[in-house]
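Each lists sequence, tokenised fold; shown next:
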Amino acid sequence: MNIVIDNKSGTPIYDQIYSQIKSQIISGALKQDEMLPSIRGLAKDLRISFITTKRAYEELEKEGFIYTLPARGCYVAPKNVELLREENLKKIEEHIDEIVRLAASCNLSKEDILEMVNFSLEEQG
């Protein structure tokens, strides 16, 4: 597992850890039932507080991306298809919001946007 902390980023460190692990789980880089580094071990490797790492793991567990076995550690949870679908829908909505914002700045009409989307869909085949 590869985690890179950007101290210059405005994003909290726990959120950077959470996002990177979540991304690796969704992409399949981290496999189902794969053991994650211990909370203390990851904190030591990243030279950050144990509490920061613990918070990231708690968020991942709360959202169903990992599970914890007492005295054994944290593991990647089986992929929940519905959870992944929701994640992707959320991303699509964010992209649509950005498209609408950019389209407004270019004075594009709804029809122009739909034409562009239809063209893109036809290209995908």
Q: What stands out?
A: The helical segments are 13-27, 39-46, 50-62, 81-105, 110-124. The two ends are 35 Å apart (CA to CA).
